[in-house]
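Entry 0007
Protein: Enamine deaminase RidA (YjgF/YER057c/UK114 family)
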Amino acid sequence: MSVRDRLAELGLELPKVAAPVAAYVPAVRSGNHVYTAGQLPFADGALLRTGYVGGEVSPEDAKELAAVCALNALAAVDSVVGLDGIVRIVKVVGFVASAQGFTGQPGVINGASELLGKVLGDAGVHARSAVGVSELPLGAPVELELIAEVR
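Output (structure tokens):
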């Protein structure tokens, strides 16, 4: 089953590649890896939420936003090599704009990790970092980047 078929089976649609908000490209291939830029929770060109997780944004909502970031990262990879060129996701780095005292960053980034596993199966299992930060671009609550091994 192709990755696109799996997305459709899950009721998901790959979005258009999110336009960069500064001087960079969404993804770059180097050898047999694709590195994505940080992906924010954009849908239809708009940031879905702003605020701090554990404050204005609940951890549950942030987890859903992390899944949106993962879909955007897959779209960035698709723009360079196509989804079926993915051998495996090697590494995910998730950033969570955290309210004072919030320590649930791993649970938030699980939204991305779980989505990648559902879409890519074993090829979606990856190493990961989940980092709490004081601010993210445009006030986003979550940002995600990944490295994909490709054919």
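Curator remark: The radius of gyration is 14 Å. The chain has one domain: 3-15+30-150.
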